[in-house]
DNA sequence: TAGTGGTCTAGACCACGGG
DNA sequence: CCGTGGTCTAGACCACTAG
């Protein structure tokens, strides 16, 4: 494990365990250096990672402070993470509506960058305790995901890709707009036709930049909330 | 100007000027080092910045590639930037509905972290060529923004804070959900009651972590699209 | 196995904040 | 002014990719 990740994890643990809140002042950079015996750049690397994740913020000339206790956002879909649709919420059941192979993905998926070659088409509904949560229609390029079964698709496809195929999801883009539900969508989500919904088109890429998944998601407005964050040009 | 920012800007210029597309292979790290006479870490810092902004991606053992031509997203509201509501779209007019001082912000704003002290309340409508775009209801803490006038509020408040007050917006959080419009909102947006809308609560902080602005935005679903992106734990 | 990006260090110097 | 975080370098060594 890389040193900066070890340190980052330690700090996260520390914040969770002590239940620290926004504004709490963390140890200084040189204290972390001494405690762990790391170089300054390595400590800054760890802090930068946490800064990007929204956990802390650094103030030049002053110190390092807690921004958010991770785990305070359980109910939210985190748009700024490389996840399909659920953040920390694990009480989600999956109902598979369709799994088939296609010679070619639909045009809109190819326009978003999915290779124009054979793919899997997966249609699922995700259900929380309080009802249907999201309709998900995904296309997986067989170039990157050569095999999918009903069983895999009933669980987490991303976990399968990571663990069984040993591939890492590296980055994603999400395009959103608000729509009125069609009759069919409303039925799946147990809502009324013309009820509001958020539609998200997602594009996921592997470490080599290859696009392997393009999806269209339609969320139930009654039980879905979303979260996004940004930091100004932070690094080192 | 910092070296890594100079390099980052040069690369962006290069991509725009040559109109490069996703997958284009950029010069190697050591070529940038030699061309600019920079150290390796500095070059990596610049590339990391661009990676975080979604402009490029680095593939270990292979090279550096273009991910997106900046400026390909003009029509989208970029949720992953520290902007109020418009990304690159500059054809936006502002209609000020209200500007007043309050002893205390409303409860929900204080819960989001706005100091429980005097503030400005600003209500505005943003209008694009094709009609009303968003209703914006903002609260600015007088601790950070001691003075606002009608004139300032008719322009860009963020520009004013940056330029006149010399303060930097450092990070933000955005909480979203989909709603049905009330009668009043519908009238402002020239839509119908119960039409869909995206409501976003935004929290903005300065470089010292101080929260200075909490806002509630309600977007017109007919002319608003949103964009978000993420990268897996990138740094150095 | 050569080439390319990633991690890490030690240390010099810079820039900002607060007393 | 001192302390704290930020930038930058040179260079060693690691890890992954591709031919």
Q: Note poorly predicted spans of chain A.
A: none
CATH-defined architecture of the largest domain in chain A: 3-Layer(aba) Sandwich
The domain tally of chain A reads 2
- DSSP helix fraction of chain A: 25-40%
In short:
The structure is a homodimer of 236-residue chains. By secondary structure, chain A is of the alpha+beta class. Chain A has seven helices and eleven strands.
What would the keywords be for this entry?
alpha+beta; globular; 236 residues; 11 strands; 3-stranded antiparallel sheet; Arc Repressor Mutant, subunit A; Chorismate lyase; DNA-binding; 6-stranded antiparallel sheet; homodimer
Structure description:
Chains A, B: GO terms for molecular function: DNA binding; DNA-binding transcription factor activity. Chains A, B: One of its GO terms (biological process) is negative regulation of DNA-templated transcription. Chains A, B: Residues 1-69 form the HTH gntR-type domain. 2 copies of one chain form a homodimer. By secondary structure, chain A is of the alpha+beta class. In chain A, 25% of the residues lie in helices and 36% in strands. Chain A is built from 7 helices and 11 strands. The first copy, chain A, has helices at 3-17, 29-36, 40-52, 107-111, 150-154, 157-163, 183-189, and strands at 25-26, 56-59, 63-66, 76-78, 93-102, 119-128, 131-141, 169-180, 196-206, 211-220, 225-231. The first copy, chain A, has a 6-stranded antiparallel beta sheet with strand order 5-6-7-10-9-8. Chain A has a 3-stranded antiparallel beta sheet with strand order 1-3-2. In chain A, a hairpin with a 2-residue loop joins strand 6 and strand 7. The longest helix of chain A has 15 residues, at 3-17. Chain A is globular. The mean pLDDT of chain A is 93. Chains A and B meet through helix 3, strand 8, strand 9 and strand 11 of A and helix 3, strand 8, strand 9 and strand 11 of B. Strand 11 of chain A pairs antiparallel with strand 8 of chain B, so a sheet runs across the interface. Chain A binds a DNA duplex (19 and 19 nucleotides) through helix 3.
